[in-house]
Amino acid sequence: MTLLEGRTAVVTGGAQGIGFAIAECFVAQGARVVLGDLDLEATRDAVKRLGGDGVAEAVRCDVTVADDVDALLARAVEAFGSLDVMVNNAGITRDATMRTMSEDAFDQVINVHLKGTWNGTRKAAAIMRERKSGAIVNISSLSGKVGMVGQTNYSAAKAGIVGLTKAAAKEMAHHGVRVNAVQPGLIRSAMTEAMPAKAWDQKMSEIPMGRAGEVAEVANVVLFLASDLSSYMTGTVLEVTGGRFM
User: Fold this and answer.
1) Where in this chain does the record put each Ketoreductase domain (predicted)?
2) 30 inside domain
3) Does some domain include residue 244?
């Protein structure tokens, strides 16, 4: 028996990067997944890579719009019969120093990360509480723990996700719904590998394990929180950082 056999999971921002790695991990563990992303064509391509319509569905979703999130979750229930796992992963960056950051850049990041996670958490919880079971996993960041230069918007949003997760966990525990968060550190991706060498080396020097993480390593921790292996855990925040900023 695989860890998510017979369960249905929704992953926002699932077309690429960490989101796609989570979906891939879930499918390998027996889940059917619905991917929500702004880029519908990329999401459809991701579904093909996961194995097609039998195991995955693609939905265009703007997580800042409550009706879009409702439609995303409804597709999961309609296509696969249930909603068992919700992963709020969608995110963007608009980095700039506080002095030069525009108000719009601040609002965009707060809306996608924090409001988007709130929408996903509250909408999924409303469905899950009816069945008295479910697992919600919110993707925060190490930036929400320590703060990063040029990321007053992103660090604020990712810290907010931690507070949101803990509050929602307290509200939903007696309904049988668990809510946890993951804080990745430096994870190898197209975006991080495009950093200037000096910035990459600086970050690497802060990691006791001496290497960047892989997207699959984040996905495995999300799988743990989504599965019954973590059945007595709610309101927790797990760092996937190689020991950075302990």
Assistant:
1) 7-190
2) yes
3) no
